[in-house]
Amino acid sequence: MANDVKILPEIEPQPLPVEVTNTSPIEVEIPVGSQPIQVEITNANPTVIVSVLGFNPRHEVGVHQPIWDYNNTHQFLTSAQTLSIASDNTNDTSAGTGARTLRITGLDASYGEIEEVVSLNGTSTVTTSLSFLRVNRIIVDSVGASGVNQGNITIQGTSVQGYIIAGQNRARSAIYTIPAGYVGRLKSARASIGTSSGAGGVKQGRLDIFLGEFGKPVRTVNVGFLNMEADSSNGIRWDTYREFDEKTDITLACHTHFENVSTSAFIEIWLEPKEI
Question: pTM for the whole thing?
Answer without folding.
Answer: 0.78
